Write the C-alpha cells for this entry.
Amino acid sequence: MEPIHEIMEIRRKKMEDLKSLGIEPYPQIRDEFLTTEEIRKLYDGKEEDELQKTSPRARCAGRIVSMRDFGKSVFFHILDRKGKLQVYVRKDVIQSPPYEAFKKLDIGDIVGVEGTIFKTKTKELTLLANSVTLLSKSLRPLPEKWHGLRDVEERYRKRYVDLIVNEKVRNVFTKRSQIINFIRSYLNSKDFIEVETPMMHTIPGGADAKPFITHHNALDMDLYLRIAPELYLKRLVVGGLERVFEINRNFRNEGISVKHNPEFTMLEFYQAYASYEDHMVLLEDLISRILEQLTGESKILYKGNLIDFTRPWRRYTMEEALSIFGGFNLREVSDIKNLREKAIFLGIEEAKSMSKGKLITKIFEMLCEDKLIHPTFITHYPVDVSPLAKRSKENPEIVERFELYIGGMEIANGFNELNDPFDQKQRFIEQRENKKEEYPIDEDFIVALEYGMPPTAGCGVGIDRLVMILTDSPSIREVILFPLLRP
C-alpha cells in the first residue's frame, strides 16, 4: 500500500480536477434523502420483475465504503446510519456528473445518489444511478478492511474512523443509547422524575474516592468535579421530590483499567418510603426487561461465560459469599489481628492500616468478586465502608445495603439511606479522620437532614459496566466513545 501522504496528495489532485470541472467538493445541500433502511423496507420484499415494471426511483446519501471498477461500469456500496446499499453506475446511464468525473471519486467520499431501484442476479437490492453528487471529499484513506487500524489504542484515539469501518462498534453504541433510553422510560413509568444536579462541588462527597480539583477564577475558590450526585439528590428528596433519578457523568481521580475510566456514566435514583429490598426487585425487573428488549433471551454470553438472567437472582450476605465462593469462614477470623494476618497473606499490602470492615470487604473483593458471574446480590456490608447507609437493627456493625454483581463486576450499589442527622455527622467525622486529605464536612447536607428526610432507598448503577455486559465488550473503553488516553 502506498504511504498515506502519497495517497493524500493524489486525492488532493483529484479534488482540484473536480473543481476545474465545476464540481464543488463540499457543497451546501437542500435535498432530502431516504435512509438505506427505508429503501430496503420499501423494496426488499419485491421481486425483480415487479421492480422492472414499476422502475421505482429513490434518493439516498452515505459514505462510499467499497468500490469495484469494471471499466465502463462501477459497483459501490454507500454506508449511512442505518446500513449499506449497493449502487451501480454505468457510463451510458449516468447523467450527472460526466462518467470521467465520477471516476475521480474515492472510497471514503460522501455522496448523494439518485436513480432506479432493481435487483441483481444475486438478488441484491441495488440503485442504478442517474446522478451521483459529491457531498464531501475524503482526503485520507480508510483502513482497508480494518487491517490498517488494528492497534486498540489507535481505534480509541480515532473513534470516528473506528465507527466508519467497524459495524460491531456502531452497534455497541446504538445499543448503549437504547439501554439508556429504556432506563429513562422505565423510571418515568414508575413515577420518577429526571433531574440534573451540579457537576462542580464546593465539598467532595457522595462516595469515598479521590476527586479532580479545579479553580473558579471569579470567585477565587477551588471546586471539585463531582464524585457522585448522591448528596444533592437526597436534598431533593428532603424537598419533596420523592422519586428522582439522574443519568450523568461522575469523575474520580483514580486508576484506569478495563473496568475504570476517570469519567464515567452513572444512573442514581432515590425513592422515598422504599427499602433496599424494593430496589433489588426493581433492578432485577429493569435489567431483565432491558435484556428482553435487546435480545429476547434470558441468557447471554459475556467474555465466554454464559450468564443466566432467569429470575429470581441469587442473594447472599457478604459472610455467606465469603464462605461459598472464597472458602473463608469469617467467624473463625473475626479477631482483627487474625483478620489482618489473613489479609496480608492474601497480598493486601495496606491491611495494617485498615479497619475491620474494610478488611472484610477487601478480602471479599479478592476472593469472591470474579466468581460472581450470574446476577448476584450481596448484602450486609460493614458500616465503616458505608458512611451514608442506615445501620441494621439486628447488627449495628453492618448496614442495610446491597451490591449487584454480574460477570464478575460490581454493577450497582444500593442501600437504605441514613436520615439521622446526628449519626450522619458522626460518620462524616469518622470518614474525615480516616482520610489523608483534610476535607470539610458537608454541613449544609446535615442541615437538610435536620429538616427531615423520609425513609428512603437509593441506588447507583454503572451504565458503562452494564453496557459492557449487555454488548459482550471486554473493556470499558469499548463502550465509551472517547475514553481518556495519555497523549
